[in-house]
Design goal:
Elements lengths: L1 H12 L4 H8 L3 E6 L2 E6 L2 H23 L4 E6 L50 H12 L8 E5 L5 H15 L5 E5 H13 L3 H9 L4 E5 L8 H16 L3 E6 L11 H7 L3 E5 L4 H15 L5 H10 L4 H17 L6 H11 L1 H4 L3 H12 L3 H4 L6 H17 L4 H7 L4 H17 L1 H15 L4
Parallel strand pairs: 2-3, 4-7, 4-8, 5-6, 6-7
Antiparallel strand pairs: 1-2
Helix pairs in contact: 1-3, 4-5, 6-7, 10-11, 10-12, 11-13, 12-13, 15-17, 17-19, 18-19, 19-20
Length: 449
């Protein structure tokens, strides 16, 4: 019977998408036959429910074709034999990073936000696959989804899912050593360790004292050659010890500038998921959920009017609801079509009249550049910085897609995304750049330049 089941799996491989096969069908195995029922083992309860809802009919039909008789399919969770207990270090109840590491400046892993859990994540067609894989990673003991790389633009939910995985794992086993950290913090921590002769403690922290690594914004590793090499060794150690590894990135590894082939290979060695802009139905669900959470009463007409215009990301929707709530509470205004359109005007570029051409003209005049120079292949700092600033401003103040912004400067969408992320990072630490960005933003808000 086991041979028949393997033949069924081979036939299913050619009928369903490869990603779906690898995620849902490949991990399940034949357990036993009970009279006219074939018992199939799934790695976890979530996988069992998903296969039952989506593939039960197909499995039964294929079994009948291959086995030559009508057989019923029964799905059960396959319990693996328990592994020997691993000694754990006692940890404080509120600690989410490492129990045996001192918390000192950038040496500290970031705290996960309590509200970023699976039950608060709004699922739609734009993120369903990423959500399903994340639930499986957090609940299952099988390692077929390891490592997991989640790709999306800013504000679409990859950080929410990453932290939700951490919360779910800790809720199942509070003793699990989960480390949630951004790549920028990882780089800074490594530099600090080198300067203070604590590099061995740094290596031990990530290689031997970590059960789950949640590493955000891996595109920040661009050009950090020494950090990439150290991280490669760390990832190999964690993978060999069958630890769970989750990455997030705004850019595909192949499009991250100055990323080593070894690092690219490790980032793409497991499951890759993407999250897109929320579709209309998802936007409606987001608006209803977040309005309810904030205590804002919205009519069905108001929800659909907002959903029609707010198409960029979750943060745009949250900003609109915050504006509406502030106006109703502080100014005692009632939510009306006029008030909604006033809020939309502040958030949606088509209504405010801003365009890529307006921003390009403003940037070129400020830096005394020709538009052809901004769109040239020149990598000189005098040309690259204004180009990066243009990308950042367009992403912040327009609803143009990455592809549209890229075409305006003869670049692809990944380059635009990376350029805007570079400026976003510098704004946090460089006062002069922050003032410059504020200057441009104020000019843009006043209307076309």
């Amino acid at each position: 019977m086991n041979g028949i089941w393997e033949e069924v799996k081979q036939q299913l491989r050619s009928e369903i998408p490869e990603q779906s096969f690898s995620l849902w069908i490949k991990p399940i195995t034949f357990l036993e036959r009970r009279e006219d029922t074939v018992v199939i083992g799934c790695p976890n309860k979530f996988s069992k429910n998903w296969v039952m809802e989506n593939y039960a009919g197909l499995l039964q039909r294929k079994l009948a074709e291959v086995g030559g008789s009508t057989l019923q399919v029964s799905l059960e969770v396959k319990h693996s034999s328990p592994s020997p207990p691993v000694p754990r270090v006692v940890k404080e109840s509120r600690q989410l990073a490492f129990p045996n590491m001192k918390r000192r400046g950038v040496m500290t892993a970031r705290w996960m936000k309590n509200n970023l859990t699976f039950d608060r994540f709004v699922v739609g067609k734009c993120n369903e696959f990423a959500y399903s894989v994340s639930r499986s990673v957090s609940s299952g003991s099988e390692m077929v989804y390891n490592p997991l790389l989640m790709l999306s633009n800013t504000g679409l939910g990859k950080s929410h899912l990453a932290q939700a995985i951490g919360h779910d794992i800790l809720s199942r086993d509070p003793e699990t050593r989960v480390c949630y950290i951004t790549s920028e913090d990882f780089v800074n921590e490594m530099i600090f360790s080198l300067k203070t002769n604590q590099i061995e403690a740094f290596k031990s922290k990530y290689r031997r004292c970590c059960d789950v690594l949640l590493l955000e914004e891996v595109h920040f590793l661009s050009g950090k050659n020494k950090t990439q090499k150290e991280l490669e060794y760390t990832l190999d150690t964690l993978a060999n010890d069958r630890k769970r590894i989750i990455f997030t990135s705004a850019v595909l590894p192949k499009d991250i500038p100055n990323l080593s082939k070894g690092m690219e290979s490790r980032l793409t060695s497991g499951i890759i998921t993407t999250m897109n802009r929320p579709d209309y139905e998802t936007r409606v669900k987001l608006l209803e959920r977040k309005a309810s959470e904030t205590g804002l009463a919205l009519s069905e007409e108001a929800v659909h009017l907002l959903a029609k215009h707010l198409s960029r990301d979750v943060r745009q929707i949250e900003s609109a609801l915050s504006c509406l709530k502030a106006k109703t509470e502080l100014l005692k205004e009632k939510i009306s079509k006029g008030l909604i359109m006033e809020v939309n005007k502040c958030l949606v570029s088509e209504i405010a009249g801003r365009s890529l051409e307006d921003i390009m003209g403003m940037v070129c005049r400020y830096f005394s550049l020709e538009q052809e120079t901004l769109a040239s292949r020149s990598r000189k700092k005098a040309h690259a910085y204004p180009r990066n600033l243009f990308s950042y401003l367009c992403r912040k103040h327009t609803d143009a897609t990455l592809e549209e912004i890229g075409r305006s400067i003869n670049r692809n969408h990944s380059t635009v995304l990376y350029a805007s992320e570079v400026i976003a990072s510098k704004v946090k630490v460089d006062r002069s750049i922050r003032k410059q960005v504020d200057f441009f933003s104020q000019r843009i808000e006043k209307g076309p330049a």
